[in-house]
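Worked example 2:
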Amino acid sequence: MTAPALPRLYPARMRPRDVLRVGGVGLRTRPVRAFLSALGIAIGIAAMIAVVGISSSSRAELDRTLAALGTNLLTVTPGRTMFGGDAQLPVESVDMIARIAPVEQVSAIGKVDGAKVYRSDRIPAAQTNGLAVYAARLDLPATVGAKLRAGTWLNAATERYPAVVIGADTATRLGIGAVGPDTQIMVGGRRFTVVGVLEPVPLAPELDAAVLVGWPAAADRLAFDGHPTTVYTRSVESAVTAVQGVLAATANPAAPNEVDVSRPSDALQAKQAANQAFTGLLLGLGAVALLVGGVGVANTMVISVLERRAEIGLRRSLGATRGQIRVQFLAESLLLSALGGAGGVLLGIAVTSAYAAYQGWPTVVPAWAMLGGLACTLAIGGLAGLYPAIRASRLSPTEALATP
């Protein structure tokens, strides 16, 4: 009589919930070590998220600034003569540029040579603060997008009298906060009343360290010769390139090669491009920090395997397969990295938000940066835990239980 066949036993399957529970055992039993390892991952991810977020917020602020100020501003300035000397724009250049059909607005400033600026007549002659004096037309603020911080702009009456509007840097250097009838400065040896202070002008930064006098007053009181040194034009957006091509010949038909034409918004965008190169460097540093965090996770997992040999042997003797042991330690490594990654994403968002709020920028954190950061942590966690998991699964029950 043959003995009945014994039923074949199969190892119990681990459900996802069991994998998470078993993988979390090592984290709960060694919380300080787990926290420090997760912190290394978090710092790397936070650095990468913050760099991307701050860069994106800066670009959003630039886009908002250009949208408010417009990208259709072109400037015309005198260049160099064929003999290397300083060229000069004709007195009629502003009126000639205004005749270009797509040009909607045109204004100008003219530098007043030899006029020094002082807070009072008691200031030593050498302390000029590096300020420039310009004759300005009444439509200048509307053309360049300038706004007043205090006081008023020149009008048809004050442009003929000793009244000035000063730039933001000028106000700081001269120590002028408020304006009024008693707020006076010395310009070219004469007293002028400060009637207004400008906010910084992003598309015309030369106005920030300037003292602006009415065109007629500059001619009558400061010996201004009437030649503009910078002409600002606003054109129909679709025709900016075409206008840019004819401005030099229109401003100075006799010598168009002595005229420089530029687009101020291009300078801001070039500055942003330079900032992006610096952003790439910071991202590289963040990647190094992330790699260091991954090494920390690997170190933690290797030590965990060495310290838990008895546990591994007991589980193997109770029927756990090598695959289940691998899954346990791999899950522990992935959980550790996921915790660090989630913490790093939150920390990076917080840093970006705080810095953007301090600068007055909109807060922008791209979704791809957050998802990519989490994906990187899981990939690093998987690689860091792979070797310890394989090593743990190769321990035989007798070898593991025999280890003191």
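The longest helix spans residues 264-307. Residues 5 and 249 are 104 Å apart (CA to CA).
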